[in-house]
Automatic annotation (TrEMBL):
Lineage of the organism: Bacteria, Bacillati, Actinomycetota, Actinomycetes, Propionibacteriales
Database matches in InterPro entries: DHFR-like_dom_sf, RibDG_C, Riboflavin_Biosynth_HTPR
Biological processes per GO annotation: riboflavin biosynthetic process
Protein name: Dihydrofolate reductase
A Pfam family the protein falls into: RibD_C
Organism: Microlunatus parietis
Gene Ontology MF terms: 5-amino-6-(5-phosphoribosylamino)uracil reductase activity
All copies of domain Bacterial bifunctional deaminase-reductase C-terminal, residue ranges: 4-178
Length: 186
């Protein structure tokens, strides 16, 4: 059975993007990126909302850009090797391989997908992850916390969700980023 992991980069005050929709403030450099590559190497499926998919589809061809650093090429290969499910009522078509559209988020279908998977799954994007958290589907929460306060924007955790969490792992990086791995307590 695969675990469903919610993983994103956040500001110290808990936002995935600032009030202008920007996330260029994140402190992902080579050490952090190599760690992320390692974390996602065995991932079987990404679950995305439309906006997150439109951001992440860059990785479909990123390895073909001239002068791309090896660490970026490595992540592109990891991303391309995984299946992707995009939950969207408005997206007309996908532009990446191994990708399908689902028009609605069905918690029972995700539960069955987890049960039938021999690899972990990732839910990315705070809106979709919020629905998965509220449905009790998320098995681990991975948060890469950047040493910056952005003051507002799109929150990492959904309003109204309450979880008791157990810290099961952590890592500090030289640039001040901290990775936290929590598991919801039963």
């Amino acid at each position: 059975m695969g675990r469903l992991i919610y993983s994103m980069i956040t500001s110290l005050d808990g936002y995935t993007e600032d009030a202008n929709g920007a996330f260029g403030w994140n402190a992902v450099e080579d050490e952090v990126h190599a760690f992320v590559n390692e974390q996602y190497a065995d991932l079987g499926t990404y679950l995305y909302g439309r906006r997150m998919y439109e951001t992440m589809v860059y990785w479909e061809t990123a390895d073909q850009e001239p002068g791309q650093p090896q660490i970026m090429i490595d992540y592109a290969k990891v991303w391309q090797a995984a299946d992707k499910i995009v939950y969207s009522s408005t997206l007309a078509e996908v532009t990446s391989k191994r990708t399908r559209i689902e028009r609605t988020f069905d918690p029972e279908a995700v539960r069955k997908l987890k049960e039938s998977s021999d690899r972990d799954l990732s839910v990315d994007g705070p809106t979709l992850a919020g629905a998965a958290i509220k449905a009790g589907l998320v098995d681990e929460i991975h948060q890469l916390v950047c040493p910056v306060i952005v003051g507002g924007g799109n929150r990492f955790f959904p309003d109204g969700a309450r979880l008791e969490l157990e810290l099961i792992d952590e890592r500090r990086f030289d640039n001040g980023v901290v990775w936290l791995c929590h598991r919801p307590q039963s």
